[in-house]
Amino acid sequence: MAKTFAFLPLAAAAAAVFVATGGTQAHHVDDLPLTCEIAVTDGAFGPQYQGLVHATETVHGSYEMQFAKHGANTANVTQSGNFSVRAGDTAVLGQASMGRRAEVEATLTLRFDGIKMICATDPQFDL
């Protein structure tokens, strides 16, 4: 049975507050070999979203990055594949710019060592 970890950013900024539970056993985020975040920066055509993974140990696994745009136009983008991050490194596993004047939700799902980790933004509205 895969363990699911939900990582909920405090805001769309790099800093995040994490809550982790898995199966019948609770885990502390410090016990995991990596953390994830959704970074949001200003880009030429609107906010740029990046799924980032920071590793304290070398980790191999798979990822799925999903972006959902709501507003005048809607769009759904999914990027996925395998990843490998060395100890001490940060990897960009997915990125997209969804344009201005849109509500965007982004979710990064990681699978490694029998663990399923989810990092997600709260819906953000950019004027």
From TrEMBL:
The keyword Lyase does not apply. Residues 1-26 form the signal peptide. Keywords: Signal. It comes from the Bacteria. Residues 35-119 form the CsgH-like domain. NCBIfam families: chap_CsgH_alph (NF041112). This is CsgH-like domain-containing protein. It comes from Candidatus Rhodobacter oscarellae. The lineage of its organism: Bacteria, Pseudomonadati, Pseudomonadota, Alphaproteobacteria, Rhodobacterales.
